[in-house]
Amino acid sequence: NLGTSNGDDPERVARNHQIAATGLGLDPECMVRMSQKHGDVVATVSSRPADIPVADGLVTTTPGLGLLVRVADCVPVILADVEAGVVGVAHAGRPGLTAGIVASTVAGLRAAGADSLVAWLGPRVCGRCYEVPAQMRADVSAAVPSAWATTSWGTPAVDVGAGVASQLRDLGVDVIDLMDASDPSRW
User: Fold this and answer.
1) pLDDT attached to residue 20
2) pLDDT tens digits along 38-69
3) For residues 121 and 177, is the Cβ–Cβ distance under 8 A?
4) Contacts of 126 (CB under 8 A, 6+ apart)
5) Is 3 helix (H, G, I), strand (E, B) or coil?
6) Are the CB atoms for 159 and 130 separated by under 8 Å?
7) What secondary structure, in 3-state letters, does 101-166 show?
8) Contact, 57 vs 105, CB < 8 A?
9) Using alpha carbons only, what angle is made at residue 99 by residues 31 and 50, rounded to the nearest 5 degrees?
10) Is residue 74 a contact partner of residue 59, using CB atoms and an 8 Å limit?
């Protein structure tokens, strides 16, 4: 567990952050996390800030600075323009999808000098499983039509991953979906 919002022991979470950073070959003091709120706020960071930013996106141009995004059923998005040296992450859940976190994060990356972006979408709840009330599906789909889905048992659903991928492609970002149904070996 990398978050304290569920009441986990802060010392255990700090230890888990050290384990994660070390496993990625990073100095644990160079990991930046955010207090995620399901909105569209993006923080641009050049070092680990004294206070944890309240945001759902992070952007940096600082080599060796790790950006942490935490999810359960939401979509973790990692974005990079390797040649420009700009990277970012976004926490895209249903509320963030409709609030515009994807566009805000891409705008932050481009403001930092990114031009040719690639995004990787990580594991999350799928549209065949994310059952929601019919009105919620209608509301989300009014903002992001590609998020319209139906569960495998025939009830209303939202496909946040499809919505995120669609928004990224509309912004000219190449998308690699690690849950691409056409390639089950990626799951």
Assistant:
1) 83
2) 999 999 999 988 899 999 999 999 999 999 99
3) yes
4) 159, 161, 179
5) coil
6) yes
7) HHHHHHHHHHHCCCCCCEEEECCCCCCCCCECCHHHHHHHHHHCHHHEEECCCCCEEECHHHHHHH
8) yes
9) 25
10) no
